[in-house]
Design goal:
The protein has 9 helices and 12 strands. It has about 260 residues and is of the alpha/beta class. The strands form 2 sheets. A 7-stranded parallel sheet has the order 8-7-6-11-9-12-10.
Length: about 260
């Protein structure tokens, strides 16, 4: 894999990686995905996303497989100057986003999905996608208020797994949940309510969708009403909830065992 040395911090070829502290929310960067670290970059290279460029320290770049994109070598000081913060993982890659997928189309290809309402914390979202990959979920569906799964911090926390787990937005919320029932999905809604069924007693149906809400508000009344079964994770007295990504991991493990 040919490595291209760059010595000028202002080199135009580094445009994808410049000032990344706010790049994800700038209109000129919305079509770009950024992966940080060797593990995430390796997963990006093997994902459906087309790699645009890779940049990093020589010792990090030599551990990557061949990629059909320019690979730039810089020193650690220049890398930090370009991206706008201290880079500890030593390598970054950029890629083009894929066209948005239809939730309805995605449901025709799946039988185990997570459905998220109002998750707007990028790191929780990334952790949840990592858990979804770990337990073999087929897809993740999001309501329109959820954060962007391809935001740089989400990709980083997911360890790049978000690039391999199919996802789509349900634009009609909560009305679009009907499309899951129409396709034979049993909908299980996570809630700490005492009237909910303990998770360990649930026998997973052949096709299921697990609904999860944001920390604090949880699932809306409308989302809870759309579910077939309310489920909870029994906890010690005085503890009313878990981090949403942690709760999802517990539920995924139970439902996929």
């Amino acid at each position: 894999m040919p490595l291209i040395e760059i010595a000028d911090v202002g080199d135009a070829r580094l445009a994808d990686f410049r000032d990344l502290t706010d790049a994800d929310v700038r209109p000129d960067r919305r079509g770009i995905v950024i992966a940080e670290g060797v593990t995430a970059v390796k997963r990006l290279i093997t994902s459906p996303y087309r790699v645009r460029a890779v940049v990093g320290l020589r010792q990090r770049l030599t551990s990557l497989s061949t990629v059909d994109a320019p690979v730039y070598v810089v020193d650690k000081w220049m890398l930090s100057d370009v991206v706008g913060f201290h880079v500890t993982r030593g390598v970054l890659a950029s890629a083009d986003r894929l066209p948005p997928r239809s939730a309805v189309t995605l449901l025709s290809e799946t039988r185990r999905v997570a459905v998220l309402e109002g998750l707007n914390d990028f790191e929780n979202l990334g952790a949840l996608f990592r858990n979804a990959a770990a337990f073999g979920l087929d897809a993740v569906l999001l309501d329109p208020r959820c954060a962007d799964p391809l935001y740089r911090r989400s990709v980083r926390v997911s360890m790049g797994h978000v690039l391999h787990v199919p996802f789509a937005v349900i634009d009609d919320w909560p009305g679009g949940l009907k499309s899951l029932r129409d396709r034979g999905f049993a909908m299980l809604a996570m809630t700490p309510r005492t009237a909910a069924v303990p998770l360990r007693t649930v026998v997973a149906p052949r096709k299921w969708a697990l609904l999860l809400g944001a920390e604090g508000p949880g699932l809306s009344d409308a989302a809870l009403a759309a579910a077939d079964t309310l489920v909870r994770i029994p906890m010690a007295r005085g503890v009313d909830s878990l981090n949403v990504a942690t709760a999802a991991a517990v539920a995924f493990a139970q439902l996929t065992q």
